[in-house]
C-alpha cells in the first residue's frame, strides 16, 4: 500500500525589495527568514509544496538555490515549477485609476518589479503538462463582476480590455505520484482591500475564486477527479474584508472537502472580536493597523480523497520550532495528508 501524500501550501516570506535579492539571501546562507523556511520544511517534509510568495526570476535561479538548500536536510524536490506570474508584469496602463502610470498597482498583479511575490511548486514526483490560466482576461471570465464607478467601467474601458483576472496565477498541474496522478489546482489571490468604493480588489479576489468553480464545472475541459485545490485565497470566510460569502461557498462546494486544519498556536494567539474559529487561522497579522489573524490559505481535496491528517504549523510559544516559524514570516504552512 502506498504511503499517504502530504501536500502543503505556504505564503512564507520569500519576497524581497528588488530582483535578485532573494537569490542573494539564499546563497549567502545568513538570512534568518530563509533559515526559518528550511527548518520548518525539514520538520514537516511535504511531498508536494506550493509557495505563494516567492520572487520569480526567468532562469529559476532562486528556486534552484532554495531546492539545493533543502537538499542539505535530505529534502529532495527534483521536480519544480515557477511560471512567470502576473505579479509585477507591466501593463502600460493606469490600472488603479489614480492618474499615474508605471506604479506597482499598474502591473497586471501588484508588484514593484517583474515576478515579485510569485508562486513556486516543488514536488518529489514528476510533473505533467501544465495548463496555465493566468493569461485569461478578467472580462472574459463567464459572469465576471467588473468594477464600475458612476455607471462607467473602472478605471476605464481600455484598462478592462487588458486587465488579466489572475493577480499572480492560476495553474492546473498533474503530479505523477507513485499510486497515480494527483492534479494540483494552484493559485494566490489578490488582496481584497486597498481600493475605493468600486471595490475593484474585492471583486477581483472573488472572481479569482469563481474561476475555480468554473474549472470544476468543466468549462476548461474534463475535471480531474483527483484534484487538490490549494493556495492563498487572501480571504477568510467569516472575518475581515472581502466577499466572504464567496469563500464560504467554495468551502461548502460538494465537489471538494475542507479538512479544516487547526493549530494550538493559532488558538492561543486569537484576537478580540474574531467571529470564526481562531484555531483555523493561517496568518498572524497585527490587530493594530492590520486585520488581525485570519484563515486565508487552504488545501481543499476533491471528495474522492481520504484525508488521514491535517494541520497548520503554528506551534505554541514555548515550542522549539516557534522561532523558525516566526522568522519565515506572518503566514503559516498548511498541510493535509491524503490517501486514495
Quick structural summary:
With 340 residues, the chain is an alpha+beta fold.
The largest β sheet comes out as: 6 strands, mixed
* Beta strands, count: 13
Question: Judging from the principal axes of the Cα atoms, what is the shape?
Answer: globular
Beta-strand portion reads: 15-25%
Helix content: 10-25%
Q: What do the pLDDT scores average to?
A: 96
Identify the quaternary structure here. Answer: single chain
Global structural class = alpha+beta
Radius of gyration: 19 Å
Strand order of the largest sheet: 3-4-2-1-13-12
Topology as H/E string?
Answer: EHHEHEEEEEHEEHEHHEEHE
- Contiguous low-pLDDT stretches (5 residues minimum) are none
Count of separate DSSP helical elements = 8
Q: Give the end-to-end Cα distance, rounded to a whole number of Å.
A: 10 Å
Q: What does it look like?
A:
- The protein is of the alpha+beta class and 340 residues long.
- Helices cover 21% and strands 21% of the residues.
- It has helices spanning 21-28, 32-44, 61-71, 157-160, 200-217, 244-251, 264-268, 322-327, and strands spanning 5-10, 48-54, 79-81, 118-123, 131-132, 148-149, 152-153, 169-177, 180-188, 227-232, 297-301, 306-312, 334-339.
- The strands form 3 sheets. Strands 3-4-2-1-13-12 form a 6-stranded mixed β-sheet, with helices on one face. A 5-stranded mixed β-sheet has the order 5-8-9-10-11, with no helix packed on it. Strands 6-7 form a two-stranded antiparallel sheet.
- The longest helix has 18 residues, at 200-217.
- The N and C termini lie close together (10 Å).
Amino acid at each position: 500500500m502506498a504511503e499517504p501524500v502530504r501536500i502543503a501550501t505556504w505564503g512564507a516570506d520569500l519576497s524581497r525589495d528588488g530582483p535578485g535579492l532573494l537569490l542573494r539571501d539564499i546563497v549567502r546562507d545568513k538570512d534568518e527568514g530563509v533559515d526559518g523556511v528550511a527548518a520548518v520544511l525539514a520538520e514537516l517534509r511535504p511531498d508536494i509544496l506550493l509557495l505563494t510568495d516567492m520572487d520569480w526570476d526567468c532562469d529559476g535561479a532562486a528556486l534552484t538555490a532554495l531546492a539545493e538548500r533543502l537538499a542539505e536536510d535530505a529534502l529532495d524536490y527534483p521536480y519544480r515549477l515557477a511560471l512567470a506570474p502576473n505579479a509585477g508584469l507591466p501593463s502600460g496602463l493606469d490600472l488603479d485609476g489614480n492618474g499615474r502610470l508605471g506604479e506597482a498597482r499598474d502591473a497586471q498583479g501588484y508588484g514593484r518589479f517583474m515576478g515579485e511575490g510569485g508562486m513556486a511548486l516543488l514536488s518529489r514526483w514528476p510533473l505533467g503538462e501544465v495548463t496555465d490560466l493566468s493569461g485569461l482576461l478578467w472580462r472574459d471570465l463567464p459572469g465576471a463582476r467588473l468594477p464600475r464607478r458612476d455607471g462607467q467601467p473602472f478605471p476605464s474601458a481600455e484598462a478592462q480590455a487588458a486587465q488579466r483576472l489572475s493577480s499572480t496565477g492560476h495553474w492546473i498541474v498533474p503530479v505523477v505520484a507513485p499510486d497515480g496522478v494527483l492534479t494540483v489546482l494552484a493559485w494566490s489571490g489578490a488582496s481584497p482591500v486597498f481600493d475605493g468604493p468600486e471595490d475593484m480588489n474585492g471583486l477581483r479576489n472573488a472572481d479569482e475564486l469563481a474561476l475555480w468553480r468554473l474549472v470544476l464545472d468543466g468549462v476548461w475541459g474534463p475535471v480531474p477527479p483527483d484534484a487538490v485545490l490549494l493556495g492563498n485565497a487572501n480571504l477568510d470566510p467569516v472575518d475581515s474584508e472581502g466577499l466572504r460569502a464567496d469563500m464560504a461557498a467554495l468551502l461548502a462546494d460538494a465537489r471538494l472537502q475542507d479538512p479544516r486544519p487547526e493549530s494550538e498556536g493559532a488558538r492561543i494567539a486569537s484576537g478580540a472580536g474574531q467571529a470564526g474559529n481562531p484555531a483555523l487561522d493561517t496568518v498572524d497579522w497585527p490587530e493594530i493597523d492590520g486585520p488581525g489573524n485570519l484563515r486565508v490559505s487552504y488545501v481543499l481535496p476533491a471528495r474522492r480523497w481520504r484525508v488521514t491528517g491535517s494541520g497548520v504549523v503554528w506551534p505554541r510559544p514555548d515550542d522549539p520550532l516557534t522561532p523558525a516559524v516566526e522568522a519565515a514570516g506572518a503566514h503559516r504552512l498548511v498541510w493535509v495528508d491524503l490517501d486514495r
